[in-house]
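ok so for the tutorial part 2 we go from a plain amino acid sequence to predicted structure tokens. step 1 is just haveing the sequence, like this:
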Amino acid sequence: MGLWKITSNGPSKVKETKLKEEKLLEEHLEEWITQDSSILGESLLVFGRQVTIPDTKDRLDLLAVDPNGSITVIELKRGQMKDPVDIQSLRYASYVSKWDFQDFENTARNYFGKVGDAEFNFNELFESFCSEAGIDDIPDINRDQRIIIVGSAVREKLGSVALWLRAHNIDIKLIEVQAYKEGSDLFIEPSTIVPVAVGRFDSVGKTGPEGQPWLADGKAWHLEKRCSPKTKEMLLLLDQVVQEEFGIEGPRWSQKYYVAYPVNDFNWLSVHTKPRFLVLDFLVKAGAFKTEELAERLAVEKFDTDESLAEKLGMPSTVFVKNRNPTSDRIRLRAKEDFDVKSKTFVEFLKDAYKAFPK
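step 2 — the prediction. this is what the tokens look like for a chain of 359 residues:
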């Protein structure tokens, strides 16, 4: 439909152009995306540019990670996206699927100009990125890989391949970039071609939350699908303790990743369900608890933000206190399967945490 400028004389259509005609190269697209990845319609942490793959002659345009921990290969074409780009991108994704955390940290260190900087911590950077994206439960890096291909026009053959790959659970995204020009001003309009956006009104008139079982039966979703038998038992025991001691509303089961116990419309306690452990987040008054004192009290380890992700996952039950704002802190307790949620020490802590809720 084009781009229109509204003037005092009415609408005026802005002239369409091509990136190639404006003498813009893939490097310009790279620069725009590194400056603001939301130009691709999502939040991405870009940490590699023109990344050379060891033992090959291949070099991928941009390397990023999304808030789910998926490594994202981004390939850019200023002209039409032709057939070889799909094979090329799949090849790159296959390469990085074999990388470990240190490979990604080295790539990020080079990208951010931190070579030789002993203080550089890619995991800390990733955790901050996830927090800014609203993700509290930090995922593993490189559990999966994704592909984003950006260019001026998608050819039918490439579109067909992309749809086939998505049908076989390969996460590939095609973005067309249309350019417009008015005087010396250049405008671009990125549009996601694959996958096709879900219609805004598709759910109107539906009788149930199709495809979202946590909305249909959240309790069964968390206990049977998210938890292992052991963490299921832990969650049920925890719920019993909370109900007996406080009698507060909850839990609310309708979130995909966690169940919540609200107080005054705020979640005092959120329990992130996992097969190997539960993550308990408490909202408390700022300064009410200290990490070191709480770790000693609960006989758990202090969660060290300087540890690598792999080391963190191998740790026993851990705790840390993080400031949220001037009035509140968040306590995060990662309770492994051997953690006793009915112990006298933990129940006393629950009572203190409840009293410390910032009402």
